[in-house]
Each structure stands twice: as C-alpha cells, then as structure tokens.
Write a structure and sequence with these properties.
Elements: H1 6-13, E1 24-28, H2 33-44, E2 48-53, H3 56-68, E3 73-77, H4 83-97, E4 102-105, H5 120-148, E5 151-156, H6 169-189, E6 194-201, H7 207-212, H8 224-235, E7 245-248
Parallel strand pairs: 1-2, 1-4, 2-3, 4-5, 5-6, 6-7
Helix pairs in contact: 2-3, 2-8, 4-5, 5-6
Length: 253
C-alpha cells in the first residue's frame, strides 16, 4: 500500500521521458571500451547510434547490442585518420538518419616511450588518430550542426592532456592539443547552438590500457561505464547549461 499522496505516487510510478529521444549520435572507436559503453548508455536514453571504427566485427557486435535495446544502429568501418573515410561515414549517416546531433570523438592510440626512443612513425600515428581524427570528424559535422542550430561534440582526452608524464611525449602532446581544439570548437559553435566538451579520464580499464600497463590493479581503474555516464550527463544537459571540461581522477593519479 502506498503511503504517499496519490499524486506523488503517480509521479513516482510514471515512466520518465528518455533524455535523448530522437537524437542521432556518432561514436568513434565504438567497438569496445569507452566507445561501446557510451553507445549503450546513449541508446538506453533513446539515441540512435552510428558506430565508427576500423574493426568491422567489433562495431557490428555493438550495433547488435544497441538494436537489442530497441534503437537503430549503423556500423561503418572507418579509419579516422583518413578524410575520405570520415566524409563517407558522415555522408552515410546523413543519408540514413538525416541529421547528426551528437559526435563523440573517442578513437585513440597510446604508444609510450621515453623521448629518445619515440619513433617518428609512432609520433605520426599518435597525432593522426588522437588529434587529426578529432579534427576531421569535427569538421565533417560542424557546418551541419551549425545549420540545424543544435549539436554537441564530446572529445575524449585524458588526464595526460592535463599533466605530462614520463614516457608520454607523443600521447600527452596529442591529448593536450585535443583540449585546445575543443575550446576553439566550443567558442566557434556556441553562437550557433553547438556545444563542445572534453572529458579527461584517468586510467580506464580498457584493452589499450591493459596492453600498455599489464601490472595495473584493475580495482584501481575507472570503468568504461563511468566515463559513459559522464558523457551522457554532458550531452543531456539543458540548452542553457554547459560543462566545457571534466577530469576523472582515480587512486592511481
């Protein structure tokens, strides 16, 4: 038996509206880790999802998970380093869904070495994926978002974009640059209703992290779902509210 006032009881039993109903979200690096967790989190709140990554079977599997949640999903094999790939991915999204409301730039690589041992090719691929990829994907949707007077671009940087660390010459440089690019994107977009935010997680329990740090204590790591929760918060804020930058600290940092 409910002891509250009947009107209050009706409120508590009423199904709350989805936060992202009818929104279309592109997520790069969407096949695993933070990308997968974000795709599922946004889908649970009503968004239809476009998954972009190089590994076709991984994004196809996540697309199936999104569809099981009752949302539409599209998996497009994409190398974010390549403008032709990115432009094709966005064009396919617009052809099928008609718009892009949210872009989560999550694709990334991490190759750690002391400065004397950083190979030029490792520096180049780090900048190409972590920074150029953010630029290309942002550029591909930016005018469209400004034209529809709505959009939110979330870039996944790192605490390594806030504090340089040993063996992080290439990685830290790329992630510092992502923060600066986010601020410019936000300043150019806000007059047109387009927000940009940057998320700076500490160590997260992902395949990339485990490959680079096999001795980590997993219990000390942030989980991908924790970052996804934060991204959902950012993209579901009211139009009058905006969080430009967030930092997730962990016991390791």
């Amino acid at each position: 038996m409910c002891l509250r006032h009947s009107a209050t009881c009706a409120y508590y039993h009423e199904e709350q509206p989805l936060k992202l109903e009818n929104r279309i979200a592109i997520i790069t690096g969407g096949g695993r880790g933070i990308g997968r967790a974000t795709a599922l989190e946004l889908a649970k709140e009503g968004a239809d999802i476009v998954l972009a990554a190089r590994t076709e079977n991984e994004i196809a599997a996540v697309a199936d998970e999104v569809k099981q949640l009752g949302r539409r999903a599209l998996a497009i094999t994409t190398d974010v380093q390549r403008k032709t790939d990115v432009d094709r991915m966005v064009s396919e999204t617009l052809d099928i869904f008609g718009k892009v409301d949210i872009l989560v730039n999550n694709a990334g690589v991490a190759i750690h070495n002391p400065i004397p041992k950083i190979r030029e090719e490792d520096w180049d691929v780090t900048m190409a994926v972590n920074l150029k990829g953010v630029f290309l994907c942002t550029q591909a949707v930016f005018s469209h978002m400004c034209g529809q007077k709505y959009g939110h671009i979330v870039n996944v940087s790192s605490v390594s974009g806030k504090y340089g660390h040993v063996n992080g010459g290439a990685y830290c440089a790329s992630k510092f640059a992502v923060i600066g690019f986010t601020e410019t994107t936000n300043n150019e977009g806000r007059p047109h209703g387009v927000k940009s935010s940057v998320v700076c997680p500490g160590p997260v329990d992902t395949k990339m992290r485990r490959d680079n740090h096999p001795d980590d204590v997993i219990e000390h790591l942030t989980q991908p779902e924790d970052v996804a929760d934060l991204i959902l918060f950012l993209v579901s804020q009211s139009p009058r509210a905006h969080t430009l930058e967030t930092v997730i600290r962990t016991p390791l940092m």
